[in-house]
Amino acid sequence: MSRHDPAAEAVVDLDAYAHNLSVLGEAARGARMMAVLKADAYGHGLVECARTARANSVSWLGVTTIAEALELREVADEGRILCWLYPPGADFASAVEHDIDLAASSAAQLGEIVAAAAGRRARVHLKVDTGMSRNGALGADWSHLVTAAATAQRKGAIEVVGVWSHLACADEPTHPSVAAQEQVFREAVVELASAGIEPELRHLANSAATLTRPSAHFDLVRVGIASYGLTPAPNVASSSEYGLRPAMTLRARLAHVKRVPAGSGVSYGHTHVTSADTTLGLVPVGYGDGVLRALSNRASVWCAGDRRPIVGRVCMDQFMIDLGDTEIEVGEPVTLFGAGAEGDPTAQDWADAADTISYEVVTRIGGRIERRHLGARA
């Protein structure tokens, strides 16, 4: 970073993103791939990642909301897009008009989609709850949804493109729920077939199942966190062990440097007190920019060739790091987290320190932090 760079930026390596898609494609050979781009591509940039995915032959994009799907259509993405979460009264009409695939988790929701389509043929993926107890139809409700879908399809109101579900514990491959959910999913597919519905796509696998459970690949895998280079199963293997490259590096520059004596309290509440004379550096980002407050006194950053601990509480706009006796000037670059290749902390390191998951670390980065995209697709 130069003197003219912003105070903080998230640098996204689109070549790393493309590499990760290739690794995941090899793992799921024989199945199509959906690149999951919800929440601004997990904080990496919706449009930029969508274009990179399409350039790397990814046939499906997945988002949560209709608004996200419409944003992709506005930038001329004409490929297949699925969105899956919305409140009653959502703008299904616009989704159908723009040829966006919709998920239906109940007969009532399917009825809303059909009514909003107003004579157009809606493309629908039926979601079955196989044991996560979140979205999707369960038990008798699934049977009602199947019956309603069969009727609507016979009338030409919908095309049932897919049947899908979501695994609760795929990051723990030996957890008994994984096999149990897969079996329930297979039974749901059989029930669909008995009703005369044989969808083009059966999809169950998320990132973790894509890498660890070939039997769950079916026709399509949905890759999210792993596509951004972060391990979906940290207790099984690291990103590098899976061959993944973290795509985001969060950088800043020191805004202030000062020498303080032993016994100095640092930041709110004096939760850290210096044990010796030391130098403190101020990093000008905080929880207002998505840096987790839970990292206070628990994580580190990379500065001047070494890891430097975060000391004291993370504030809304800033936090402090202990530089020891190293002579460092204002403006020195700081890597908050990155690919880890040079010893810098990774998003997974920060997640471990904050007792959370890497998904939260990268998706929270926002506020005043600028994004810069690198690579062939930038």
From TrEMBL:
PROSITE patterns: ALANINE_RACEMASE
Residues at which substrate binds: 134, 316
EC numbers on record: 5.1.1.1
The gene coding this protein: alr
UniProt domain Alanine racemase C-terminal: residue ranges: 247-374
Keyword Electron transport among UniProt keywords: no
TM ranges: none
Known function: Catalyzes the interconversion of L-alanine and D-alanine. May also act on other amino acids.
Designated name of the protein: Alanine racemase
Gene3D superfamilies: Alanine racemase, Lyase, Ornithine Decarboxylase, Chain A, domain 1
